[in-house]
Design goal:
The protein is mainly alpha-helical. It is built from 15 helices and no strands. The chain is 73% helix and 0% strand.
């Protein structure tokens, strides 16, 4: 991931590889770590705006953008197909977690658990902004696990499904929004590579994640349904737009093509060294 240097995506890339596997891991991580379930319990997807915030920031966001733009190879059609394959797993699992949320909710003190949900979002924001800071922070799964222990109340266990089906719709819609974001990036990838500053978008996304807990906890005069994180993300997209920017990869290829070998490079050794200069990873 030479052009984006996204800390979370880089760490996952070392474990699972590149391409579709990396995208699937990045988008499935909120489901595997329990982040999405925590947000459902905290009421973060109880409205249309909340659905958009969670979809764009948790399932979409800077990591998804970086993976689709930098790590996915193939034609536009192949990238779209691979994103749809990932979405075929993400959407049903998100719907299932949203449906069983009341069973989990009956086991925890929701007010205590909301605080841990806010902490896990802040931790993800810090990890997104800086790999150095992320090394000193516990993983989201650990924070959520501590939240479950701290808020656990076994006497309240009730098996059931969400009383308001609209919450399941919003939870499923959040995953669909994330998949739609990845599809849009796959379709407009060639244009985005030359017109979007990936690192600027990453830092802005980290800020948007950092303010999301304000809505979850309803701190001070801020209403719980205020789309602050969504507004910050929109401003981030605007600031990351760089119409005068260039694609670093395309520039490097062009510079290599314009480079001429010296006249005395006809022997095999010179050709080998010349190839090594053009492709230093060989």
């Amino acid at each position: 991931m030479s052009t984006s240097r996204h800390p979370i995506a880089l760490r996952l890339e070392q474990r699972v590889g590149e391409g579709t596997r990396l995208l699937g891991t990045v988008m499935a991580l909120p489901l595997l770590d329990g982040i999405f379930a925590a947000l459902v319990l905290a009421g973060a997807v109880s409205s249309l705006l909340g659905m958009l915030e969670v979809g764009l920031l948790i399932f979409g966001g800077s990591a998804t953008l970086a993976v689709v733009l930098v790590e996915m190879d193939g034609s536009r059609r192949e990238r779209v197909r691979n994103v749809l394959l990932v979405g075929a797993f993400i959407v049903p699992v998100a719907a299932l977690q949203a449906a069983i949320a009341p069973t989990i909710e009956s086991l925890v003190d929701l007010e205590i658990f909301k605080r841990f949900a806010a902490l896990v979002i802040l931790a993800i924001a810090a990890k997104t902004a800086s790999a150095t800071i992320g090394e000193y922070l516990p993983s989201p799964a650990v924070i959520i696990g501590l939240g479950l222990v701290a808020s656990f109340q076994p006497n309240g266990l009730e098996f059931g499904y969400v009383a308001e089906p609209i919450y399941v719709v919003y939870g499923t819609g959040a995953a669909i929004v994330g998949v739609g974001f990845a599809l849009a990036v796959a379709v407009f990838g060639p244009w985005l590579r030359g017109n979007v500053d990936l690192d600027r978008f990453r830092f802005g996304s980290a800020v948007a994640l950092g303010v999301l807990p304000l809505s979850i906890l309803s701190i001070g005069p801020i209403p719980s349904d205020a789309p602050i994180a969504l507004a910050v993300l929109g401003l981030t997209a605007l600031l990351a737009f760089d119409p005068e920017g260039t694609d670093d990869y395309a520039d490097s290829v062009a510079s290599v093509e314009d480079t001429e070998l010296p006249d005395d490079s006809d022997d095999d050794e010179s050709r080998r060294l010349g190839d090594r200069d053009r492709a230093p990873w060989l």
